Description:
This protein has helices at about 5-10, 15-50, 55-60, 65-85, 110-115, 130-150, 155-175, 180-195, 205-230, 235-250, 255-275, 285-314. By secondary structure, the protein is an all-alpha fold. It has 2 domains: about 1-150, no CATH class; about 180-314, no CATH class.
Amino acid sequence: MPFSIDWSVWLSPWVLGIFGLCIGSFLNVVIHRLPRMMERQWLADTAEFLQDQDMLKRQLGAADKRTAEITNFGQKLAADCEARPALSLSRPRSRCPHCGHVLRWHENLPVIGWLRLGGRCSACKAPIGLRYPIVEAATAGLFAVVAWHFGPTPATLVYLVAVSLLIAAALIDLDTTLLPDGLNFSLMGLGLAAAWQHCTSVSLADAALGLLFGYGALWVLATLYQWLRNRTGMAEGDFKLFAALGALLGWQQLLPIILLSSAVGAAVGIFLVLAQGHKREVPIPFGPYLAGGGLAALFFGQELLQLLYPMLAG
Length: 314
């Protein structure tokens, strides 16, 4: 009897919910380490540039003594970068940021490990952030909802990857105001590849137009804002994330996504300014709101379209 896989079991909400716990644990690592890996690479690149004496003379017209000073600083910076321990998504092993205690396997179990430890390091008793189990539980819940909503289909596999990328991008942006190109471009490629292979209901033409219109629309708005107010209103990472959502969900979903994310973002921004004393000149990351709008469109896209366009027509 030929071997066959029962996808209705492996792609069921219960199985994918448990799988989501594990992915959520990995996403915590990505959220914490990826920005630091990027910053470390930027420092290394800066050190290399500072040692380019010909470039310094061309750009600064600096005298030999000043060029030597800058080059010497670049060499010291490069040495400092090289002296740092290796950092990747897999190395070193997870450890307490307060005392350096390396987590044992049972301490690293998603949600359960945090609960068993009472939210504290077993070695130094320092508190472990509540966000770690929240991210794990939220990822598990979203994986289960994707399985329930889309069933045992190729679309489920596509959207599981998309949800993971959106969670990581949103929380990295919230922490650092950075939206890594690696995550944005992965989401773009996922949307285009899924449309090309007919894994979702989005056609390749709609995905391509979503990519183009998504980037172009926010670029135009940001350029106009820059021209009118003489200040930056939105970062390029937001353009790319919006373009990626357009590639994943089609150009038709761009308007619901931007309206939802803008409305929620404005409400939160007003609250932060009025109730929390947030300074107006300090930027508020927009990536989390775009990601939230994208998730809403993923699960309720048709309902949002049916609600929105009659309102605009009226």
